[in-house]
Amino acid sequence: MADNGKNQSIPVAVLGATGSVGQRFVALLDAHPWFRIAHLMASERSAGKPYREAVNWVQTTPIPERVASMMVEVTDPSAIGECRVAFSSLDDTVAGPLEESFARAGVLVVSNAKSHRMDENVPLLVPEVNADHLELTRTQDFGRGAILANPNCSTIGLVLALKPLDDAFGVRDVNVVTMQALSGAGLPGVGGMQAIDNVIPFIGGEEEKMEREARKILGQVSGGKIAGHGVRISTQCNRVSVIDGHTQCVSVKLGQKVDVQDLIRAWREFEGEPQRLDLPSAPKPTIHYLEEENAPQPRLHRELGNGMAIAVGRARPCSLFDFKFVTLSHNTLRGAAGGALLVAELAVRKGLLEGVEAPGGSIV
Amino acid sequence: MADNGKNQSIPVAVLGATGSVGQRFVALLDAHPWFRIAHLMASERSAGKPYREAVNWVQTTPIPERVASMMVEVTDPSAIGECRVAFSSLDDTVAGPLEESFARAGVLVVSNAKSHRMDENVPLLVPEVNADHLELTRTQDFGRGAILANPNCSTIGLVLALKPLDDAFGVRDVNVVTMQALSGAGLPGVGGMQAIDNVIPFIGGEEEKMEREARKILGQVSGGKIAGHGVRISTQCNRVSVIDGHTQCVSVKLGQKVDVQDLIRAWREFEGEPQRLDLPSAPKPTIHYLEEENAPQPRLHRELGNGMAIAVGRARPCSLFDFKFVTLSHNTLRGAAGGALLVAELAVRKGLLEGVEAPGGSIV
Amino acid sequence: MADNGKNQSIPVAVLGATGSVGQRFVALLDAHPWFRIAHLMASERSAGKPYREAVNWVQTTPIPERVASMMVEVTDPSAIGECRVAFSSLDDTVAGPLEESFARAGVLVVSNAKSHRMDENVPLLVPEVNADHLELTRTQDFGRGAILANPNCSTIGLVLALKPLDDAFGVRDVNVVTMQALSGAGLPGVGGMQAIDNVIPFIGGEEEKMEREARKILGQVSGGKIAGHGVRISTQCNRVSVIDGHTQCVSVKLGQKVDVQDLIRAWREFEGEPQRLDLPSAPKPTIHYLEEENAPQPRLHRELGNGMAIAVGRARPCSLFDFKFVTLSHNTLRGAAGGALLVAELAVRKGLLEGVEAPGGSIV
Amino acid sequence: MADNGKNQSIPVAVLGATGSVGQRFVALLDAHPWFRIAHLMASERSAGKPYREAVNWVQTTPIPERVASMMVEVTDPSAIGECRVAFSSLDDTVAGPLEESFARAGVLVVSNAKSHRMDENVPLLVPEVNADHLELTRTQDFGRGAILANPNCSTIGLVLALKPLDDAFGVRDVNVVTMQALSGAGLPGVGGMQAIDNVIPFIGGEEEKMEREARKILGQVSGGKIAGHGVRISTQCNRVSVIDGHTQCVSVKLGQKVDVQDLIRAWREFEGEPQRLDLPSAPKPTIHYLEEENAPQPRLHRELGNGMAIAVGRARPCSLFDFKFVTLSHNTLRGAAGGALLVAELAVRKGLLEGVEAPGGSIV
Hints:
homotetramer, Rossmann fold, Dihydrodipicolinate Reductase, domain 2, 2 domains, 14 strands
């Protein structure tokens, strides 16, 4: 047994390790009880340098000592050795084929890129919402390896808020207006002069992604095939002057007549597979319903559950839909690196990876 | 004849002259071609001091020289002498009865307060939208005086964007999510620690005001009575980290099947009574439809038409409503002091004030 | 032994518990290994309500469960019972006499107010810098009680950076320009409209406080009297658009000719009494010298050592003084509540409080 | 005669017309009484497109109609025809030789790049400070053409504040800490995530530039040679969360014992050559000394004199130097495009350009 309850028996690779999501992976994995960083992979420009030199570290915690001196390697499955898990924050322009090559090499790739999200046989996972979609991987032809996709950061916050309502009452129509944080745009991202004293009412491709991904995640898997959810979704996405934390104003039409207290109860009682399996990154609870009239706010509430929980507030009747409310999720923790970790924990605990066992045993 | 085309033959009073909207009135009136500041009125605490000393001036132009040395007077109609026009930015807690006392003294009060906005016989005016509502004043019983109300800052931006659509196609349902500037909260307003790296998803009373006021403004007047517009409106109001400029994400259901180009044409061809009357504060055009995919943005577009025009962009089909788009208006210019000036210009030009003539003559 | 290593055997009171520093005390004390909140005291307006209702909680962690339901009491020493330690974040306007009345009741008052900071017999403590000043309390006449003062938030960051240089080389002249965070102004503090896209080059009384306090803290105590340090200090204080973290541009003239590496070594080797005594809130190290050319930055480095360490960077020769450098400290952690906790830990460990023993024993 | 008093008889070229300073040139020149944009030059990527399409316009006023449809040309002196004045905001990496080639083609190049600023025979001009340095151009060997350099944006604000003090009392030592706006970094510049809730205590090369340039500008020209000023200057440069406006905390040691009122009088009575010549872009006055205890502030005072004046405040004695004060200047108006315009106006009015006459005549 290691100190701090850290066993870290499972070696992992981080692909795209020098980028902003890659850095989040490194920071989170340093303290992870199961996973241990064995490979840091990046572009040729960074390969061959110690991580400390290759990275422009912009996290608020220092670079973990052990990792700082590790050599960055070129992103190549032949170098990954015995390592069977890779977290990918590769750029969309190269992620597609690279991730496949790792999967074919027997690696479980948990990807933040959009490349494979809508592939028929790739589960798009929010572990509290659709853990059962894992079975889609059976139809993948990567041998021992597999690809699991982490959804877009704003999609994750939305479907977590919708799932308890859909389970209990059925969700028919959803209108969403997002106010998204700057960190969602990666580095260099939005310039300071566009970010201050401003709102940018457009994020390229984001509205389409949210509508498409949400229907897949909320959909049903049967017989190795996924049927998208029939919900109608319309989104408007804005970039606002916030560092971390996507706020969303949501309006919903439900399948039943209920009252506000029913919604609040559904959110508060919600528990997902990660909580039942007691996964290390699972927040308890996943959803905080806040009573204050002016909550949730990104600066005050984005860190709830170590940034893995979401906050919901201001549920009230709507004269056009049935209800409207506000939801907030941390876009680089729950919405990116933290969410991907939870996906990997779920997959490992569920025994997806033959030969790789979760501490305490896998559950098949 | 004065220089700069400034005739300034009509003396006016500013009530609440030391507040943030009061300061905007002072700055705008200094260069006004018709109106001349004759009285600066404020609370007892400020009365008796030169304006320069009474005010904590926070405008980006210096205090006008002539006004700086004027004495601030207590807010009392008996002191207003021959002055027949007053711009009120009095606090809601005292505005109601004080404004009435000025009206009874024969003064035309143009008010930014909410006190009388929903009174049956008080027109709630956005001059491009409902100039004909002026006739409601005939049913007021203030003798030669009258009260005209300027709507809430976010309502103004919304109804200006909706009016051309309503005229051309009929507007049935409207969903709005606002991202409002800090200056809308007056002084001291939102604290710096709440304003930076944050969104506050709540503005007290704002959602109700927008829904209620928009229906009145878009309504029909006949026989001295107003019939509210039947449009269903649902709003969610947020405060964002922007100094000036309210951005609104709007979804609309129309009475006819049309396409996006029809909407754009309706906005671009829109002209209101202020433009036809060539009023000094009337922007030409009132509505700028912007083609850029990421417009409008508060920092870039709030000053269009000297802050009296609005910007609209991103019109596109909506899967739940018919269309969605983004609109932006300057909340302390068009949405407050500038809007009130335009109301006063309209009223004077229309001959509402017996014995007070617009330069160039009144039109009855 | 309690769980989490928390013994919490020493009951404490928080005076001014609902304010912004009071909230920080509550958040920090919740996890403290020695201290347990026994009393929450505030103004009459809050007294008699559960803390949850009395406070407008603005911390980024939720209100601790145990504390949320505690009743707020009126600020009165007669109600404090057996409790012997009080953390005061009382307003400067009332702190003076109130803190004395608690001291006379036998309580060790650790104060964030400025009222007693310059009193001859009140130690103004930065535990790494002048732990020996504790002996001044012998000249206080509060019986078993005592008053210890926590310096101004910007003074603390400055003296921590200067102390190792003064010990090693002697500090003669110091020029400082600060760029201070908004949280230093308390609540409501600087308005959002002044805070965004702006710098305010003035903080009332701050420059004088920094110059005066720094000389006292760096001074020598002998025979129960303090002799201020002879250093000449000139400061210019600015408020910038930062939530937490005071940045200071410092220029120093030293008593010896040394080079930049000597300075860096002095900072890196610096260790104070709190580190030697292994106090619970003592950061290790206190000073992080950062090599990056653009460090320290408030958003990246203010949390070092849980906000109790300071960061120093950019040390380089100066053509007017000997050296210039940049220092950064967290103003509400090290600079306020966290600093006061460290003072209390030092006092208790040093046996200042007869009958109150630190876990593990006191050192006299 | 054109309307609006615009004669615009002198055709000019803008080099680097699509960049952020280039855009400022375009916006300012549109309303200029003497100059008319005849050529917009940029990189090959932009050449051949209408300006509207080539530029990502980020100014707060719309693209001038006449300019929007002009074709962007490649940056080549052979295409400039009869045009004899060029404003260069070329990138430092290419500016040096390109500007020389324009000068050799008979063009007066007013440059914002740093390439030629320290050349012995290139005057580095702040027209109120060193108009007489124009004579350096006699030693240039560009035939009818010439190169004039506009200093670094932060240097300009500093020397304008120092010049009246130097003239009256002699300036010996100067310590400066800057808090510089984001717009000074051009596009894309500082990322939004680095800009919000942060200070960056480093701007590459800026400190050296300020020290070096200030000594040249304040120096004496005689016999076609420049002797740098003997003042000792030490600077620390910071980037803060401000859109426009560089704030500087300055400490000065003077050659005489004077009091604060003497300084204020020197600033207030200051008048430079541009004011005496009544140049179109000359602010009157150049220096506003503000009495408010918390002035100057970028958001409130950067627009004084249409952004061409500077604001000074908080002059007070200093315990290390003689005095300290705060100065503020608009970095993209006075500090870049506006300053360059004033330089060109000075040169034309002074008859530097044979065959190009200022409206109203040149003064030799």
